């Protein structure tokens, strides 16, 4: 069976879930190819792996030799960009015809494929995986119906959480074509170790791109409140990741008087991230709905932290409560509630033994519901079923 993954950039350090899913397909005997807007080989050395260069189906740019024109055309707005990009998508869509199933990551790529299917009579079943901004932003501005052509021409919509599933069905997708499919982590490669903490300073860590929806502003403000109200608590905070808000977050830490306890490390290799996770006590990700409607799906970083044995602290946001149950597998606070978040952090400092119990329950949750081996088995079964249905037709 030949399966095409349609993505924006490939390979992408911020989308390792795509690489994990491709690897899972390869391990199950599926021939995988990739169609993307831009290749990043030689640019993101942390994932510049021969496996991605040498996929059985190859890695192709959707617009071929015209791919470099995309950034310039993207400066156009509204209907002009939509018409021009759609025309080029259709003109270069022939490369999709050789596949048995097409998997589009993010709704925008599902939309591009569906439009091309409509015009080019591409017969391969389309599976669109919805992750976050692709649902949250159109929900915010009332345009979720933009995916009507995806619902009509696609075989299956796979949102990463139940919150998105409900939204897509309300927007017009047939309920029997929408199923939740979680992203996951390989629990076999993540060693569980609830770091012992008695008199040691509380070590907190965040791993994310520094964008509005990650809520790092509220993590810093909560720690500022902890420092002011509970000076007896010793703590340090490490932030791994780059992004447009990096400088602003450094300035906020200085303004709050906590910069001496906060280390902004920028992007780091996955091996170093794993090592730092193994040495930390708390994983902090107080996600929020961004001003443009962008929301999380269910952050893989939270799953990795839970599998590794950290106490996780997040928010009642999008699909996160499907992963974390407050007081049982981690701690949740309302979005943007600095006081509630500070109380959760103080509780962690005061209750090390209870945190170990949370960590054990969190690991079990990941093994049961978010293990990538099981999820990739289910995903491959879905692809084989779709290919068989097409062949029978």
TrEMBL record:
UniProt keyword annotation of Transferase present: yes
EC number per UniProt: 2.4.-.-
Record-annotated membrane-spanning stretches: none
Top-level class of the enzyme under EC nomenclature: transferase
Keyword annotations from UniProtKB, A to Z: Glycosyltransferase, Transferase
Keyword Cell cycle: no
Molecular-function GO terms, alphabetical: glycosyltransferase activity
Domain Glycosyltransferase subfamily 4-like N-terminal as annotated: residue spans: 15-188
Chain ranges of the Glycosyl transferase family domain: 202-364
PANTHER family: COLANIC ACID BIOSYNTHESIS GLYCOSYLTRANSFERASE WCAL-RELATED, GLYCOSYLTRANSFERASE
UniProt family annotation: Belongs to the glycosyltransferase group 1 family. Glycosyltransferase 4 subfamily.
Protein known as: Colanic acid/amylovoran biosynthesis glycosyltransferase
Organism expressing this protein natively: Aminobacter aganoensis
